[in-house]
Amino acid sequence: MTSSRTVLIESNQLFRQGLKHLLADTRFAVEVEFGTTAQALANAETAAASGMVITGLAGKEPGDLDMLRNAYPNARIVVLASDLSVDTLRDAMTSGADGFLMKDVSPEALIQSLQLIMLGEKVFPTNLAAMLLDLNSTPSPVNSLRGLSPREQEILQALVTGASNKLIAIKLGITEATVKVHLKTLLRKIDVNNRTQAAIWAMNNGFTAGDAAAPTRNLHAMSA
Fold this sequence. Notes:
- The chain has two domains: 6-124, Response regulator (Rossmann fold, 3-Layer(aba) Sandwich); 131-211, Arc Repressor Mutant, subunit A (Orthogonal Bundle).
- The chain is 44% helix and 10% strand.
- The chain has ten helices and five strands; from the N terminus they run E-H-E-H-E-H-E-H-E-H-H-H-H-H-H.
- A five-stranded parallel β-sheet has the order 2-1-3-4-5, with helices on both faces.
């Protein structure tokens, strides 16, 4: 089993120890732990994670996630939230987090989600993603497409469902390389940096997950 160096950031010592115990016999065994984000940032050079950073402190202070992303550029960033917060989800998505999970998620669902994230998938709860869309009063997809081709619109729609490049390629009957080319072009056209920001842009402009038939295994509520 290939291991992933994992950094855990959590102020609640009991929860931190419990999570360490849960992950001990998995590829995500915790090697470094911190009680505050400040500690994780101060020790980033010596604790640089090549695998994953799991933080239960996202949103406590403005810019925390951005600083973690800069301090651990090669790691997957996973947020463990205590409650359902649209603001925290928005911050996580725009800061480039790779996953957003609830702290009451089942052990099995947590491990499965971490495995998907290490494969390059994005794991976010669809119920909160839908709430983000509801906050936008008058989406106008026709006037906001910025010259996107029909194929680019199809790919953008698939991003809303959380589909990977492989799944998009299968759905559209094209190669993954072609998907990557279209994705690079549409990111430039809508002026965003990554697929997560593109999905947010799409939701803000009238695209909804319900409009597409693409698989949604990596963008769902982990409530088991």
